[in-house]
Write a structure and sequence with these properties.
By secondary structure, the protein is an all-alpha fold. It has a single domain, classed as Helix Hairpins (Orthogonal Bundle), CATH 1.10.287.660. It is 78% helix and 0% strand. The longest helix has 28 residues. The two termini are 18 Å apart.
């Protein structure tokens, strides 16, 4: 597997994780005020996931591929 293929697989995995966390945050917001204490944890996890996804996409672009 080439470096580009490895990064593509990473982007796909991170995108799925980030999307799921986005939906978790959305679901949490719909249930407010129930579960309000989970906001910092889920928001931090979502932020980290999108940060990692952005980094992986930048590495893929630098390797010559478009996402």
């Amino acid at each position: 597997m080439s470096d580009i293929d490895t990064i593509k697989a990473e982007v796909k995995k991170l995108n799925a994780q980030a999307t799921q966390l986005k939906m978790d945050l959305h679901d949490l917001s719909e249930d407010l005020p129930t579960g309000w204490e989970k906001i910092p944890e889920i928001a931090a996890r979502t932020f980290k996931a999108y940060e990692q996804l952005t980094d992986a996409r930048q590495r893929l672009a630098a390797a010559g591929e478009q996402t």
